[in-house]
Amino acid sequence: MKYSRLHAVPTVQRGLLLGFSMLLATAGSSAAEAASPSGTDAVFAYIGPGAGFAVAGSFLVLLGTFLMAFGIILIWPLKAVFKLATRRGRGKAKVKRVVVIGLDGFDPQLAERYADRMPNLARLRSQGCHYPLGTSIPSISPVAWSTFATGVDASRHNIYDFLTRDPCSYMPVLSSTDTSTVPRNINLGFAKVPFGQRAVYKVLQKSQPFWKLLGANQVWSSIIRVPITFPPQKFKNGTLLSGMCVPDLQGTQGSFSFYTNDESKLGAATGGQRFRVVVRDDAVESNLKGPPGPDKISMKSPFRVAMDRATGKAAITVGDETVHVGIGEYTPWMEVPFTGVKGIARLRIQRWDDEAVSIYVTPINIDPESPAMPISHPFVYSIYLAKMLGKYATLGLAEDTWALNERVIDEAAFLDQAYLIMDERKKQLWDVLEKTKKGFVTVVFDTTDRVSHMFYRYLEPDHPANEGKDTEEFKNVIPELYGNADKLIGEVMEKVGDDPDTVLMVISDHGFCSFQRGVNLNSWLRDEGYLVLKDGAETSGDWFEKVDWEKTRAFTLGLTGIFINRKGRERLGMVEKGPQMDALCAEIKGKLEALLDPKTGENAINEIFLTQEIHNGPYADMAPELLVGYHRGFRHSWDCAVGAVSKDVFTDNTKSWSGDHCIDPRLVPGVFWSNRSIQLDDPNLSDIAPSVLDLFGVEIPGYMKGRPLFGSNERSASPVPKTPAGSKTAS
Q1: Is the pLDDT of residue 208 over 60?
Q2: What residue intervals traverse the membrane (predicted)?
Q3: Cis check: omega of the bond before 49, within 30 degrees of 0
Q4: Closest Cα partner for 447 from 416, 490, 408?
Q5: CATH of domain 90-159+206-246+375-512+665-731
Q6: 3-class SS of residue 247
Q7: Percent helix / strand / coil, the chain, rounded to 5
Q8: 505: which strand partners?
Q9: Contact 152/703 with Cβ under 8 angstroms?
Q10: Sheet containing 221-224: which strands, arranged edge to edge?
Q11: Which of 95, 99, 360, 628 makes the best surface tag, with the fewest CB within 10 Å?
């Protein structure tokens, strides 16, 4: 039996092969002594879930793997009987395989503009159909992909943003994941003996992904990098590689490292850390920062870069590994060893001359070949992929947008990184397509979203981020991105072939638009008297530093909504739920919908949605009371997103991150292509889950809000706010 045929072999052999891959992964692992660098602390782009790594000893891992494989052999007869019994309750499948390719952020208007670059998607449309795809409310990736996975709205899956606030402290927490450590004890019967700490990972997304329902009905699923799948939830009959919200080895959502002797490039950095280095004999020696050790001090891993001026190549050594690259070239993934755990990183020499040296290091990703925490289901699936296809990015937000925002890398370096990650994802897609001849396959590509965020300004010469800069060099990046996405779909269509029993869908979670002007709604709330600062202060730092909660009625953080400081929910709430809160929400809504940008005279906001009017699920009560539907070109400002109160309400967005989609969701629909026609002309992201279940003959749960696209459409559509008269709509 070949190891490369993981999904194609019977269950017993598959379990043994997975166990064997774990043996291979742990056999060669080693630890390195830590060293200490100097440098600044990181100021993170997103709030990380904390380090909290549970590092298992090799013996326990090997023993557990052996017992798991042995157990699979013992229970196989019972599983075979159970499989036959449960299949009787399932309806007749209409197809053998469903393939969904996710192109995060792929925009229907840009797709129309660059249609001449996309012959394969045109061919797919001729075989079936093409429509705009209604997105979630709010139109932000963690919300949208959660709706894709569960078939319900945000009030039922509990994800409204990347961040929410802790109502007890008003401090930010990740919406999707809770990571903590608890004491580990050995129970001796008469006493419990402390035995260090163990990490606890809790997924905060509610409802359940539809592939769990497929698995319960004996339908295999291969799930690759769907956002908000960390920590990986267990389900029957399938494999999953986690996507968005997988942390790096420091426990953050992505912290780059930058090493330089250029004083102008040192200082605090959002999304990473900068270190001063000294060049001696054309070589640099320093350390990579890792997770906290037992003493709660960050562990260190030494590295060395030695430049050969004659060849223009540098020898880069990390641990026991040395590679040779030129200036402006990425290393392959290099293992970064720490005591008891290791990660992987790519290094790139940005500059090396007599005046300055600059070295960029990606966030240290969890090593998929020796994961410090679960990043796949089953645990060994990430190891299998690494053994078969090579090491790959595991960080949830792998494309380093903040390194480009902070200008520690340039546009060329970002593009190289984004396409390296896209190539890794393609290999994983080809693997699951080959191994999953029956069942469900989905792979999400982030490149379309990340490149659109960082290069949208090159579509608009007058964008504030372009002031004083040449826009010619990169003006074709997004058109080429759409052409490259089309080539990917062409390859998928070739591999799928003309199989009438395979349904192929190409979707995106939302569209895209320009982000030119930032709006600090905390500053507006201050000006209107809804948010009050202590001691008469005019401004406040991040995370509501000077906010007087006993006088504040409304506030915002994240990118999507405004919270009311409610009695009985927030610790210092002052607004009663009921008529008092309803009147306050109506008042704020009316004022904000009339808010004009003093620079352009345009309305900044298309519509404010009252959550209680559009969502009635069990988790709406903890959501923002008002969801902000900006017009195209506007978004929460950067300081507003982190709970700061600035002097001005409106500011120009001058960062490289120049495109966005956190606006009125009706203005940024996603895309939908299929090789089959559908019976609706207004498909929505919430329709994908019930459609896949229906295609496999699995009963659609009554709680799902979507409709089956390919079969009977007797179910009513979930309510979507109507477009107000005079507002901008997507064509």
Answers
A1: yes
A2: 50-78
A3: no
A4: 416
A5: 3.40.720.10
A6: coil
A7: 30, 25, 45
A8: 100, 674
A9: yes
A10: 129-133, 670-674, 502-507, 97-103, 439-445, 221-224, 238-241, 376-377
A11: 95
Which residue in the block uniquely carries the two structure tokens 């982000």?
Answer: 515
Residue 166 vs residues 79, 173, 326, 551, 673: alpha-carbon distances, Å: 43, 6, 47, 18, 40
pLDDT of residue 182: 65
The pLDDT tens digits of the residues spanning 238-259 come to 999 999 999 999 999 999 999 9
d(CA 575, CA 554): 9
- Tokens, residue 471: 């826009």
Q: Which residues pair with 276 in a beta bridge?
A: 260
Q: What is the pLDDT of residues 556-587, one digit of tens each?
A: 999 999 999 999 999 999 999 999 999 999 99
How far is residue 347's CA from residue 117's CA, in Å, rounded to a whole number?
33
What residue segments make up the domains of the chain, in order of their start? 90-159+206-246+375-512+665-731, 515-660
Mark out the alpha helices in 265-333 (DSSP H runs).
none
Model pTM? Answer: 0.86
Two structure tokens written together for 632: 């195209």
Check pLDDT > 80 for residue 7.
Answer: no
- Exposed, middle or buried by CB within 10 Å (0-12, 13-18, 19+), for 728? middle
The two tokens of residue 479 are 């058109």
CA 484 to chain centre: 21
Strands 238-241, 221-224: pairing is parallel
Report which of 654, 482, 408 is spatially closest to residue 121, judged by C-alpha positions.
482
Q: How is residue 19 written in tokens?
A: 């166990």
**E strand spans, 368-449:** 376-377, 439-445
What's the pLDDT tens digit per position in 12-33? 233 323 333 333 333 333 333 3
> CA angle 617-253-262, nearest 5°?
150
In angstroms, the Cα distances linking 196 to 26, 185, 303, 372, 395 are 22, 7, 30, 16, 27
**H-helix segments, 469-578:** 477-496, 521-527
Q: Phi and psi dihedrals of 336, rounded to 5?
A: -115, 105
**Residue type present at position 618:** P
Distance CA 665, CA 139 (A): 5
Write out 356-390 in H/E/C secondary structure: CEEEEECCCEECCCCCCCCCEECCCHHHHHHHHHC
Query: What residue spans of 240-367 are helical by DSSP H?
Result: none
What is the reported pLDDT for 65?
53
CA distance 45 to 50: 14
Please give the structure tokens belonging to residue 171: 């401090």
CA dist., res. 317 & res. 336, Å (int): 10
Q: What are the helix (H) ranges across 564-670?
A: 579-593, 611-614, 638-641
Q: Would you say 8 and 435 are in contact if contact means Cβ atoms under 8 Å apart?
A: yes
How far apart CA 113 and CA 106 sit, in angstroms, is: 12
- Residue pair 507/227 in contact (Cβ under 8 Å)? The answer is no
Tokens of residue 519, six digits: 């709006």
DSSP 124-179: HHHHSEEEEEB--SS-SHHHHHHHHHHSS-HHHH---SSEEE-TTT--EEESSEEE
